[in-house]
Amino acid sequence: MNIKLMNKKLKHMFPEYTELMVILKQSDPHFAKMLEAHDELDRKITRLELNPVNVINDNLEILKRQKLKYKDRLYALLRKAAHYHSTSLAHSPSSE
């Protein structure tokens, strides 16, 4: 997956993990599924917010909370993967 194709908002939320996000999207089905769910919620929320009738909408607030939960989970996975990658690189024979 090209970095340019990834959700721009998500890239701005986690700029330090942009490359790792691309790697995980290709190699980790769970991460890819969560990323897609987050993007789908983001698109749905954006469509609802464009309609003034939906500005005061309980469902919109529920969707926003769901999206935030996905963001938190994605961040946790990114931190874990970044730690794993930095630890495995530090212990690899090529780094000695």
Summed up:
Residues 31-73 form a coiled coil. This protein has four helices and no strands.
Question: What are its keywords?
Answer:
96 residues; mainly alpha; 74% helix; elongated
Can you lay out the helices and strands and say which pair or pack?
Layout: H1 8-13, H2 18-27, H3 29-50, H4 58-90
Helix pairs in contact: 2-3, 3-4
InterPro entries: DUF465, DUF465_sf
Coiled coil: 31-73
Protein name: DUF465 domain-containing protein
Describe this protein's structure.
The chain has a domain at 25-49 and 56-78. It has helices at 8-13, 18-27, 29-50, 58-90. With 96 residues, the chain is mainly alpha-helical. The chain is built from four helices and no strands. The mean pLDDT is 82.
Helix proportion range? over 70%
Mean pLDDT across all amino acids: 82
Computed Rg: 16 Å
Which outline best applies? Answer: elongated
Uncertain segments are none
Please tally the helical runs, counting DSSP H or I stretches of 4 or more residues: 4
Backbone structural class = mainly alpha
The main pleated sheet reads as: none
The N- and C-terminal alpha carbons lie at a distance of 32 Å
The share of residues in extended strands comes to under 5%
**Number of distinct beta strands:** 0
Name the helix and strand elements from N-terminus to C-terminus, one letter apiece.
HHHH
